[in-house]
Amino acid sequence: MSKQDLPPGSARLQLADGIAVLRPETAVFEAMVTGWSHQQMARNLSAGTISAQVATIRRFQDFCEVEGPWAWTPAMADDWITELRGIHGLAHSTILSYQGALRHFMDYLLDPAYEWAQQCQDRFATHPVQIITEANSARHAHESPGDPRKRAYSTDELQDLCDTADAQVTHRFQVGAKGAMVALRTATITKVAYAWGLRRNEVRMLDLTDFGPNPRARQFGRFGVCYVRYGKPSKGSPTKRRGVLTVPETAWVIDCLEQWIDQGRPGFDQATGTALFPTERSDRISNGALSHSFSELCDTAGLTDPGLDFHSLRRSYVTLLVECGYDTRFIQEQVGHEYASTTSLYTFVSPDYRSRVVAAALRAAAGHLPERTNRT
Q1: Among residues 52, 256, 286, 337, which is most buried (max CB within 10 A)?
Q2: Angle between helices 180-196 and 287-301 (to 10 degrees)
Q3: pLDDT tens digit string along 188-231?
Q4: Measured distance CA(252)–CA(5) in Å, rounded
Q5: Domain Tyr recombinase spans what residues (predicted)?
Q6: Rounded distance, CA 334 to CA 242, Å?
Q7: What is the CA radius of gyration of the chain?
């Protein structure tokens, strides 16, 4: 077979025949990683997915401290996962992701089409084995493995959060503190994330140009639609785009957003690009900085329940739309869920809402009952 006929990622495309190298173990490992990257690109996986997968492989190699994948064993994988869970406290979903990367990498090395097993046998007198099997891999506990404590904010909690955010802005302005604009940015991000049901990365990646009018709702002006360009991708796919329509129940956020754009954002030196939320040192706020500022806000508001986090704003948005009677398909499209069952996991309707539904059903049923006549 000529090299032109070899599949992307083949060992013979990555290693030069008959050429000795100073450190063969390092050279072969790097060739394996490069070949696997090419194989994943041929599968049309996104650059972000490939980079994350490769980073996992390098992290495991550093943990093992052995020559390379031809010396890896299932016991090493078990020890690594035990450390990640016991010491670093990684989530179940993260463990699944790491194990998946290891499994796919070993499948690639063991596939005869890529000839890596033969290369290892010829060079090191041994060959790779699959280190993630049915016996030592984490299980998908349910369709959406996550913390069951996670929930939406109640109406009172959401009000406390927004009131605290506004109070911090007012206080810092009054005392002339430097962080007034930072507090305004945190308050605006919180409200925007809730008002359009956005994920953390979706809201931080917003640009000034990511809003537009809705011809059927002209009362919202230039903020009738929020165009999300960095929606959560499916595995191996690019980010998903969607348009989130502004609903009357959260249209109050428009005044907050206009205030930020006109008065808050220009106060940052880095506000020279199009990013909606810049920082003092960069043109766009990072996920880490956003998480830190939001965590401080929650602590100040006394909202320290482990079931509440930034994503709870999105859960609250879904719950709001459900309680306001919006069609389930409309809600699914608004938040960008592929399946309606996923949207249902985000719904945390209040006891008062459930009571109203039952009362309405009883009234409707009573209306269909035949009238009782008095007997003499």
Answers
A1: 256
A2: 90
A3: 999 999 999 999 999 999 999 999 999 999 999 999 999 999 99
A4: 61
A5: 148-359
A6: 8
A7: 27
Q: How far apart are CA 269 and CA 256, in angstroms?
A: 21
Instruction: Write the burial class of residue 213 (CB in 10 Å: 0-12 exposed, 13-18 middle, 19+ buried).
Output: middle
d(CA 308, CA 150): 6
Exposure of 121 in the CB half-sphere (CA atoms within 13 A): 8
> Measuring CA to CA, which residue among 336, 153, 308 is closest to residue 231?
336
Alpha-carbon separation of residue 248 from 119, 224, 254, 347 (angstroms):
64, 10, 11, 19
DSSP secondary structure letters along 108-121: HHH-GGG-HHHHHH
Q: How far apart are CA 291 and CA 75, in angstroms?
A: 36
Q: Residue 144: which pLDDT band, with cuts at 50, 70 and 90?
A: very low
- Which amino acid is it at 125? A
Walk me through the domains of the chain, giving residue ranges and CATH numbers: 3-124 (no CATH), 155-348 (1.10.443.10)
Q: What's the confidence (pLDDT) of residue 142?
A: 43
User: SS3 breakdown of the chain: % helix, strand, coil, rounded to 5?
Assistant: 55, 5, 40
Separation between Cα atoms, residue 120 and residue 127, nearest integer Å:
5
Q: State the average pLDDT over residues 234-260.
A: 91
Asked whether the beta carbons of 109 and 132 are under 8 A apart, the reply is: no
289: CB partners within 8 A, 6+ apart: 279
- For residues 25 and 68, the answer to whether their CB atoms sit within 8 Å is yes
Which tokens hold the place of 244? 């989130």
- Torsion region of 160: left, alpha or beta (phi above 0 gives left; psi -120 to 50 gives alpha): alpha
Q: What is the DSSP letter of 103?
A: H
**Tokens, residue 109:** 């090395």
Sorting pLDDT into bands at 50, 70 and 90, what band is 179? confident
State the Cα torsion 95-97-103-106 to the nearest 10°.
-110
Q: How far is CA 40 from CA 48, 56, 208, 267, 314, in A?
A: 11, 15, 34, 44, 32
- Could you tell me the pLDDT band of residue 145, with boundaries at 50, 70 and 90? very low
